[in-house]
Amino acid sequence: MLEIKSLLTKSKIIQLLTLEYLKFKSNAVITMLIILFVALFPFIILAAKDMFSNVPPPLPSSAVFFEFPTVWDYQGYVGNWMLYLFVGFIGIFLVTNEVSYRTLRQNIITGLTRTEYFFGKLLTIIVIALGATLLYMLSTIIIGLLHTSGVDFELIFDNNFASSRFFLMSMGYLSFGMMLGFVIRKSGLATFIYLAYILFIEAIIKWTAFSLLNSDTIKSAINSDTKPEQISFSNIINYLPMNVIEDLHPNPWLKLPDNFMKVSKEVDFDILVPTSMAVIMSILYILLFIFLAYRSFIRRDI
Amino acid sequence: MPVLQTFDLTKKYGKLTALDNLSLTIESGHIYGLLGPNGSGKTTTLGLILGILHQQSGTYEWFNGQYGDKARMKIGSILETPNFYPYLNAMENLKITSLIKEAKDVPYDDLLELVELSERRYSKFRTYSLGMKQRLAIAATLIGDPEVLIFDEPTNGLDPQGIAEVRDILKKIADSGKTVIMASHILDEVEKICSHVAIIKKGKLLATGPVGSILTSDPICEIAAEDMEKLHVFLLNAPYVKKITPVKHFYECTIDDSVNVAFINREAFRHDVMVTHLVGRKRRLEEEFLEITKNN
Predict the structure, then answer these.
(1) Rounded Cα gap, residues B275 and A31, in angstroms
(2) What pTM does this model have?
(3) ipTM score for this prediction
(4) Which residues of chain B neighbour A299 with C-beta distances below 8 Å?
């Protein structure tokens, strides 16, 4: 408790953040990732103007991409991919770079406690997440203002806490990356696991669990030639970590009316986690990632 | 006042015991050499007392525990290799050290002057030669005017000129009155720089004390006689003979500093032992070191 108190002083926070800034301000990989994110994220949605000039029903027109209030969802979904592809890696490299340069151990030898060092990384990813959220808010508001006729204040901010969800989503990717950094410590392997886990390992776990949970129902359905009415597999498998973090700003098309996206009435499962659950579960997972990273870092030889 | 005390420090890597119940006391002002062959546990010892490795058992205490977990703020250390951000220059790297050490008004010019890197201060660390990297690391250890300095094999891998330069700097630092802990496998280095020494091998402490009493040994005398058995009895009964080792056709004896060869010759004659071979010499440090490490 004493240590926590000494960490939460203004001078300690400034010291640790300044330290991280000095270390990484001219790090090629991290500055490149930040530049790419800042340069691409605000504008990439504009490409949809040409790509989706004819949108499939039930969308009225591609204008929904850019209009309030739906622009919050679409820009949020673009941000989802951008965070995955650029920002999450920063969480990894903030740690693995220092492992490979052996500056992590040198920082400790020079005088930081392990908790201080860890706290510095945590503060850094919080600042990055805040920066990404700010970029999301500014770019969304500007795009919305440019494309919506007759805007009023209420319409602009009719977004169901989209910015807060975006911040959580940023923290989700960053804390997952940071945890992989602290636990795996090798840039290459951590990067691979980060990419692979989010892209398909979690999906494999999900569908393996799905078929295991429902094997009896599926078999009996095949044998008796009846419709598989009982497939109401619990939505538990939707609560795997990166799935809930992604569902903070999911593909807005998946939210469209039931008859458009649901496979059939008989197969009762939700494609998306309800937003409130996504928020709660994401917070829990972020805390878990931070805890696992810290525990690994405190316990191991470095 | 003890700067560092370790109590039965033990570190295991799987089945291998890298450090076995190491207990040391290092006093303020000592220039303390940790001497041992490669793989003997020197770096493990330093890693433990610097908090980057976890011991299986035992404890250590810096400065009688007065700084707790922040003791490393009062210690400047190099462990194994000089570790800096390769894409930053010397000044940027030193400023990072200063920020961690919370050191104000750091005399960068003097530090860089001391390690002869003034002209390369704005070159990126990755462009440095090994000797320059090592010298920058030494400069970094001095930031914040720490009470204790720790150097791990400071001349390892350097060319002869680099070795000479680094030793020169180390001597200057040692003369400044700071406590220095230096790990080395090079006897000569320890002897030239250190005031005290601990010899470790396979994780065990073999001997510790002032360099003079551990490494500067008693004289050796080779002795043979017509009747070797009679000689042996004579040597066993002589109080100034500390140790007798049979070597080929003679005995090699460690003798007390207070006696000389002529005296032994007279005494042998008085005891009716006809000496046929008698050579006195000082044991070389390397021999002493090997002697200590061999028998354990």
Answers:
(1) 82
(2) 0.86
(3) 0.88
(4) 54
